[in-house]
Design goal:
Arc Repressor Mutant, subunit A, five-stranded parallel β-sheet, alpha/beta, 10 strands, Rossmann fold, three-stranded antiparallel β-sheet
């Protein structure tokens, strides 16, 4: 199990130290114990933190929820609340700071911590990958904005309504085709596979290992039908491939096809610049 650097924000020292002992048993590294939100904020800059366990009721002028809101705004560190207050009012208020988990004290064993921590770290990883996918999506959008001065009004209308990106039956304007070494690629037909940031996340996930549909679905947090739709879009352009193993269908990157796309795209760019 990978070590995590954890800060415990808890004003009851005995409770904090007991939690630190349990974290060490799980092979986590409790590198700081602080009693207040103010001190937690002052230490974040100098510590390499992976996770924060935060009590809601703290010493100082800020409680844990107020502190968590500032951390979520300024830092990319998951927070799990630890508190003796499990009432609905407190829980509803805690939700506003978007924590990754909520553990009610007393915490007496590793089993009280492990499931919530593992789920929090997994969700944080998925959230980061989705964020990167969104960033790549925005970059692609900037790259593929067409010059409207050379396109027909119908093409402009279709592009603005995203019909070219999602409608498989739409006739593609030949102006949007490029020819490289006697091979034709339709830019829109190829780029439509990136018309949703979740497809970037699927490609990122498949870089590590083949995955089943339900594993992809869980990772991107979408319904089975939406996940299947994204997979079909990627399969049509050859970026991924699927195969059956027993009763399951697995998906992986189609590296040979990806390299073919890279080769054609690279040579088209060279032709433009020559």
């Amino acid at each position: 199990m990978a070590q995590l650097n954890v800060m415990i924000v808890e004003d009851e020292l005995i409770t904090a130290e007991a939690i630190a002992v349990l974290l060490k048993k799980l092979n986590y590294n409790p590198i700081a114990i602080v009693p207040s939100g103010e001190e937690a904020l002052s230490k974040i800059e100098i510590l390499n933190l992976d996770l924060i366990l935060m009590d809601i009721i703290l010493a100082g002028t800020m409680d844990g929820i107020e502190t968590a809101k500032i951390i979520n705004r300024d830092y990319n560190i998951p927070i799990i609340f630890i508190t003796a207050y499990g009432d609905k009012k407190t829980l509803d208020r805690a939700k506003l700071s978007e924590p990754y988990g909520y553990i009610v004290k007393p915490i007496t064993s590793e089993d009280d911590l492990l499931p919530t921590i593992e789920l929090a770290m997994y969700n944080h990883q998925v959230k980061n990958k989705l964020k990167k996918g969104n960033e790549k999506f925005e970059q692609i959008k900037q790259l593929i904005q067409p010059d409207k001065a050379i396109l027909s009004s119908q093409v402009i209308s279709n592009l603005e309504n995203a019909t070219y990106l999602e409608n498989q039956n739409e006739e593609i304007d030949p102006m949007l085709e490029i020819e490289v070494f006697d091979s034709k690629i339709n830019l829109i037909d190829w780029l439509k596979s990136f018309s949703n940031p979740e497809r970037f996340l699927i490609l990122e996930l498949l870089k590590s290992q083949p995955l089943k549909l339900d594993e992809i679905q869980m990772s991107i947090g979408k319904s089975q039908s939406t996940s299947s739709h994204h997979i079909k879009k990627l399969e049509r352009t050859g970026l991924i491939k699927g195969w059956k193993d027993g009763k399951y269908i697995y998906y992986s990157l189609n590296m040979s096809k990806i390299m073919e796309f890279v080769y054609l795209w690279e040579n088209w760019i060279k032709k433009l610049s020559s």
